[in-house]
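User: Design a sequence. Structure:
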């Protein structure tokens, strides 16, 4: 064919990080069928959905089989009942939003990847190490990326030193992969910078439910953020919807890029390219945000957080530096003995049959670090902790 392809895709790594991890694990298990592998790499939930959620899902599915209650295409921005539930969820943290600010989607990852559609040729600032979707979705669109360094010295929570020009800034707190969480002063520094420079913050709050300390769960807890920030959140980790797919994005009405209303652009983008989330899934999401639903969902969150703390105790006892493990499901540890990330991956896999994620896959600053998750079963986590104690 003589058509032109989007050659910007050639600027991203040919193999997605988690695909490469999966490939290596398949090779290992085929060669070692008798060894029990404990998977602590990909951040997928394992606990079943709360019954209040599955009851709502089944009830809504049955409604689809009845002429009087059947529903066709959902509203592009989500049903009013779910958007109003999300507004009430924010109100629990003292944040006032309008249902019009809420756009329901099939997950945070989709919205993060799609937001570059409404933005022009801006410099993009991304902390490193970072969730790969931030980088890849911008490279696919030919955007200029400037990385700012997260490291042991700044607790993997870089601040906006030296940013003078309007930019699109990606922040994630609690952070994936590092598990680090910004305090109010840290987020205020970013909001102040965005307001001063005319920048836009794209804030990923997918792990907000894991915060138990007095730390901000939303960028909108910071004064002025509604003038400079879009927030993306998810039911995946809070309610276990990785298999159902539902999330939301907050675009405050009146959020402007120069003379252009970003709310109008996002609404147009979603109306054109997205047909909405199914009615049964939105009813399940609504149930997750009821008082009883929140209680049950947070029980699962607590289960995963406890797993992470068990791992954190091991590394603390061995004098290995790490972040996360408290307000996050992730442990981000410094590879012992100066090992490289993929070397440590092979070391854990071959010696104690534990699979994690090499930090190198999250960016240059991830080299020499490693991510483990608390999303497995308690039994597997306890077993992994014992294996790690003996190995380290």
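Assistant: Done.
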């Amino acid at each position: 064919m003589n058509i032109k392809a989007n050659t910007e895709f050639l600027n991203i790594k040919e193999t997605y990080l988690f695909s490469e991890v999966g490939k290596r694990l398949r090779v290992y298990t085929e060669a070692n069928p008798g060894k029990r592998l404990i998977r602590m790499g990909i951040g997928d939930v394992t606990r079943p959905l709360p019954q209040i959620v599955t009851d709502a899902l089944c009830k809504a599915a049955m409604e689809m089989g009845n002429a009087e209650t059947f529903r066709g295409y959902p509203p592009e921005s989500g049903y009013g009942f779910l958007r109003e539930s999300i507004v009430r969820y924010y109100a629990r943290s003292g944040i006032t939003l309008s249902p019009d600010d809420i756009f329901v989607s099939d997950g945070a990852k989709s919205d993060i990847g799609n937001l570059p559609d409404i933005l022009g040729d801006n410099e993009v600032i991304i902390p490193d190490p970072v969730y790969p979707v931030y980088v890849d979705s911008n490279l696919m669109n030919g955007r200029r990326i400037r990385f700012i360094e997260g490291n042991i010295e700044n607790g993997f929570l870089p601040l906006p030193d030296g940013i003078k020009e309007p930019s699109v800034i990606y922040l994630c707190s609690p952070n994936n992969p590092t598990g680090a969480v910004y305090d109010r002063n840290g987020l205020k520094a970013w909001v102040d910078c965005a307001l001063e420079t005319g920048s836009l913050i794209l804030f990923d709050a997918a792990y907000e439910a894991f915060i138990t300390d007095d730390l901000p769960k939303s960028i909108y807890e910071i004064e002025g953020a509604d003038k400079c920030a879009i927030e993306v959140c998810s039911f995946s980790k809070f309610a276990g919807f990785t298999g159902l797919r539902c999330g939301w994005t907050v675009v405050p009405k009146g959020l402007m890029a120069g003379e252009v209303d970003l709310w109008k652009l996002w609404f147009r983008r979603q109306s054109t390219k997205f047909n909405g989330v199914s009615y049964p899934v939105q009813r399940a999401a609504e149930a997750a945000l009821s008082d009883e639903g929140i209680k049950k969902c947070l029980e699962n969150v607590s289960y995963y957080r406890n797993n992470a703390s068990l791992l954190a105790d091991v590394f603390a006892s061995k004098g290995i530096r790490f972040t996360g493990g408290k307000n996050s499901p992730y442990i981000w540890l410094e590879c012992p003995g100066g090992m490289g990330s993929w070397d440590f991956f092979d070391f854990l896999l071959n010696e104690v049959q534990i699979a994690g994620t090499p930090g190198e896959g999250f960016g240059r600053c991830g080299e020499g670090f490693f991510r483990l998750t608390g999303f497995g079963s308690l039994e597997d986590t306890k077993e992994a902790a014992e294996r790690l104690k003996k190995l380290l």
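Residues 14-43+293-391 form a domain with the Aspartate Aminotransferase, domain 1 fold (CATH 3.90.1150.10). The longest helix spans residues 291-317.
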